[in-house]
Design goal:
It is a single chain. Strand 1 and strand 2 (64-65) form a beta hairpin. Helix 7 (129-139) packs parallel to helix 10 (166-179) and helix 11 packs parallel to helix 20 (420-437). This protein has helices at 14-27, 32-50, 74-82, 84-89, 92-110, 112-121, 129-139, 146-149, 151-161, 166-179, 190-202, 217-242, 263-287, 314-317, 319-338, 344-356, 359-378, 380-395, 399-413, 420-437, 442-455, 466-474, 482-510, and strands spanning 58-59, 64-65. It is an all-alpha fold. The termini are far apart. It contains 23 helices and two strands. Strands 1-2 form a two-stranded antiparallel sheet. It is globular and about 70 Å long.
């Protein structure tokens, strides 16, 4: 089954025409690899121009005035050259993508993924596909960055196999994985990471303040429903109708089909599911003991935290290898039972096939890694974040408007600094103490930050996984580029900023608890 033939004569409203303009302009940008190179050169020049200026803004990381480092100085340039290879090979998304794709490649090559999806789609109503994909994207946060390499491409596969436009599936999955980054079903490593930074910022004003690792848990969990509903409406009513005029011109041989399962496929799927269940059961048994090697040392676990879920736990550091195993095992078992794997060479061929499709991404990852390194070394991102937060404080607006301003500031800074913790270390060190002086708790300030951080994740080409999503789109629509993806995701960003911000303000007005041990007001001790 294939998506319906593009309807080029369908009427197009103002929103669709505006997004068409965004797509055309965005696609006129250079290739992503060249774009990262040009941006890196621009950072070099700007860092040179600003390196001699004395700024009054104080860097909260060291208590000194912020300084822009001249990347064109002899020492900086030679350091850049000497670090070029380590910067590339240690680029976090690179290893995540390649290792996960090895296991996924085997599962796809043997037919396990295709058979699994066809079996699931046979009993799933088409109208529930969108919310299901978005919810799975949100749920994937428990596995750190796994959603980018697992859920998003499967979103395209699922939609295409169901006769819908695959880019709509990619957009829905991307909205759940990245746009809903701060929505949650289960606590993730991000919760203690941000709360720890909030506590450090709060203790600049009051050393007695303690911030719970789950201080936003109730708000972020309830936000899951909001993200699913918003994403569902936008995907089905805005994104997919606009895509009717966009032809799917990828390689037909690589496209999934919704044909009925053969007897061999049913046998293979049954054996693969049993193998996956057995693997999962054995793995779960290894997690339960208090002395499990998957747990973090007690000294690394904050009060009220889970030793399996803190960032330093071996379990959290092994998510990608676990994905590799949990797809490799059923993929091989399916292939043997269904007859698609004859020898070990078929398994290796599946891995090689997956890697051959990653060549373009590896090239983009090289230039992306160099740009991010240069931008971080220049201190320009820190300057923008600190000056923005300082300017917001100087405006002296009412508390509600100040929180809205911080959400918008975070969304803008997010276009330049991808790391959630790096942004909060800069912005939070200013905004948390400032709002405490106005009686606002660190818990509420952190919740506002999380709204702004998540909402604009999906429209910044500088986000490390953004080029990978472009590659996923190109599998179905060869002309896809940066502009295509930004135009797809812009409605989600704008709507989430408005609706999620209003949701937070309403949540506050009703006094619904933000999380475990959280409050809305800050009252000084004594």
């Amino acid at each position: 089954m294939t998506p319906a033939t593009p309807d080029t004569a369908a009427p197009r409203g103002f929103v669709a025409r505006s997004l068409d303009v965004v797509e055309r302009v965005g696609n006129k940008l250079p290739d992503p690899a060249v774009l990262f190179l040009l941006l890196m050169l621009a950072v070099w020049v700007v860092s040179w121009a600003l390196s001699g200026i004395t700024f009054e803004a104080i860097d909260p990381r060291n208590g000194s005035p912020i300084v822009v480092n001249n990347l064109l100085s002899g020492a900086s340039f030679t350091a850049f050259m000497s670090q070029m290879v380590p910067t590339f090979v240690s680029f976090p998304p690179l290893g995540v993508v390649l290792v996960a794709m090895l296991g996924l490649g085997v599962a796809e090559h043997t037919g396990f993924i295709s058979a699994s999806l066809r079996s699931a789609l046979a009993v799933t109503p088409k109208w529930l596909l969108t919310p299901a994909v978005i919810f799975v994207g949100i749920f994937s946060h428990i596995a750190v960055d796994a959603g980018y390499v697992l859920v998003i491409p499967l979103g395209g596969v699922i939609f295409y196999a169901a006769g819908r436009h695959p880019l709509a599936g990619i957009a829905a999955a991307f909205a759940g994985v990245s746009g809903g980054f701060s929505a949650t079903v289960l606590p993730s490593s991000l919760d203690p990471l941000l709360s720890g930074l909030s506590q450090a910022a709060a203790q600049l004003t009051d050393p007695t303040v303690l911030v719970s690792p789950l201080n936003n848990y109730f708000f972020t969990t309830s936000s899951t429903v909001l993200i699913v509903l918003v994403g569902w409406f936008l995907t089905d009513r805005v994104i997919e109708p606009r895509l009717r005029s966009m032809a799917v011109d990828g390689d037909p041989a690589q496209m999934p089909a919704l044909d009925p399962l053969t007897a061999a496929e049913r046998r293979g799927l049954l054996m693969a599911v049993l193998a996956m269940a057995a693997t999962a059961a054995l793995f779960a048994l290894s997690l339960f003991p208090e002395a499990s090697p998957w747990r973090a040392p007690a000294a690394d676990v904050p009060e009220g935290g889970n030793s399996l879920l803190v960032a330093t736990a071996p379990l959290m550091r092994s998510i990608v290898p676990l994905i590799f195993i949990f797809f490799l095992v059923p993929g091989v078992v399916y292939g043997v039972a269904a007859g698609t794997v004859k020898t070990h060479r078929d398994v290796v061929q599946g891995m090689a096939k997956a890697m051959s499709g990653m060549g373009y991404y590896i090239v983009m990852a090289f230039f992306c890694a160099q740009f991010i390194y240069a931008f971080g070394q220049s201190n320009l991102g820190a300057l923008l974040a600190i000056e923005g937060a300082t300017g917001l404080r100087a405006l002296g607006m009412p508390i509600q408007l100040t929180l809205v301003g911080m959400i918008l500031l975070t969304a803008c800074v997010n276009l330049l600094i991808g790391s959630a913790s790096a942004k909060w270390a800069l912005i939070g060190a200013i905004m948390v103490p400032m709002l405490m002086e106005l009686g606002v708790s660190p818990d509420l300030t952190q919740a506002a930050y999380r709204v702004g951080d998540s909402s604009s994740n999906i429209i910044t080409p500088l986000m490390p996984y953004f080029p990978l999503i472009v590659v996923f789109c190109q599998r179905y629509v060869k002309s896809s580029g940066i502009g295509t993806l930004i135009a797809l995701m812009l409605p989600y960003t704008v709507t989430l900023l408005v609706v999620w911000t209003a949701y937070l303000l309403g949540y506050w007005a009703l006094g619904i608890p933000l999380g475990v041990g959280a409050s809305y007001e800050y009252v000084p001790a004594g």
